[in-house]
Amino acid sequence: MVLIDWEEETSTATKSLTFVLNDPPYESARSTTALRLIDAAIRRGYDVNVFAYEGAVSLACAQQMPHANPIHGRDVESEDHPNPKNWIAALQLLARQCSVRLDWLNCGQCSDERGVGEAITGVRRGSPADLWAFVRSSVNTLVIPTR
Amino acid sequence: MSKRILQILTTGYRGTLEEQDDQVLWLVHMLHNNGADTDVLLRGTATNYVVRTQDASGLVFGDCVQSQPPDIANEVRALTRKGVRVFVVLEELKKRGILRSETVEDITCVAAAELPALLRSYDQVWQW
User: Which of A144, B46, B68, B96 is the most exposed place for a label (fewest CB within 10 A)?
Assistant: First the structure.
């Protein structure tokens, strides 16, 4: 495992976007849509900040496990069940390849109350104060709320 | 004692990309496989589940490609082949411009006015 030191990350982006995510994984299409928007922003050269709030802290939970699917008749390998933590890791890699920064921050209190404090490498814990810092440094902020 | 259950699914595509199927249809498959007598009524955005040509492939994040995208129409088809009746409301098909020729073969279309009688014919109705 490689720990990412965000302070030392080299970024050529001159603009940052902040996304506030609210939905837990596996419950709606909104989380997937958010990740697609983040993918697009990274590919267009934006630094991206993510503040994962409430259920969204589970998106990067390190303990997610793929499973087999008896209805599909596939074992765990062939089912290739996606875990959002892997999608986030792919976006982290994409950001490095594009020389931009993806700073994913989980609300610490939200993580604690759900018992999902163990996130994948590169995901930080924070608070609404960090969100405010994100917002102040970004050209815009998109909230993708739970409905 | 046998219980006939109608599952009403109103919200379509809820987490289907992550799950690679629909959570409720999956549960209906499992319940049926375990002996339950249960059918499905698709309403609202779930009406689109019967469209044969839907294609959810192509999801990519960075270099992570989804290899087994959901195949919802096939999930519906598989239910009907097991003997599970899948109902859709005619008015909801029309509202979305879905032609009968575009749907999975063995679904059952009902008019909105027929819904009260349909619901009364089940011992339990589960609204998802």
Answer: B96
Please tell me the distance from the alpha carbon of residue A98 to that of residue A22, in angstroms, as a whole number.
Answer: 26
Alpha-carbon dihedral angle through residues A118, A120, A122, A124, given to the nearest 10 degrees: -30
Closest alpha carbon within chain B to A82: B18
How far does B9 lie from chain A, in Å, by closest CA?
A: 14
Q: Would you call A78 an interface residue with chain B, using a CB distance cutoff of 8 Å?
A: yes
For residue B15, give the chain A residue with the closest CA.
A28
Secondary structure element (H or E) that encloses residue A17, with its range: strand A16-21
Exposed, middle or buried: residue A57 (CB in 10 Å: 0-12, 13-18, 19+)?
Answer: buried
Which tens digits make up the pLDDT trace of A90-139?
999 999 999 999 999 999 999 999 999 999 999 999 999 999 999 999 99
Percentage of residues of chain B with pLDDT beyond 70 = 99
Residue B2 touches chain A, beta carbons under 8 Å: no
Q: Rounded to a whole number, what is the distance in Å from the CA of A87 to chain B's nearest CA?
A: 6
Mind listing the pLDDT tens digit for each residue in B71-90? 999 999 999 999 999 999 99
Tell me the pLDDT of chain A averaged across its residues: 91
Contacts of B77 in chain A (CB under 8 A): none
B18 close to A (CB below 8 A): yes
Q: What is the mean pLDDT of chain B?
A: 95
Residue partners of A102: CB distance under 8 A and separation at least 6: A38, A42, A47, A48, A50, A91, A92, A94, A95, A122
Q: Do B62 and A93 touch (CB under 8 A)?
A: yes
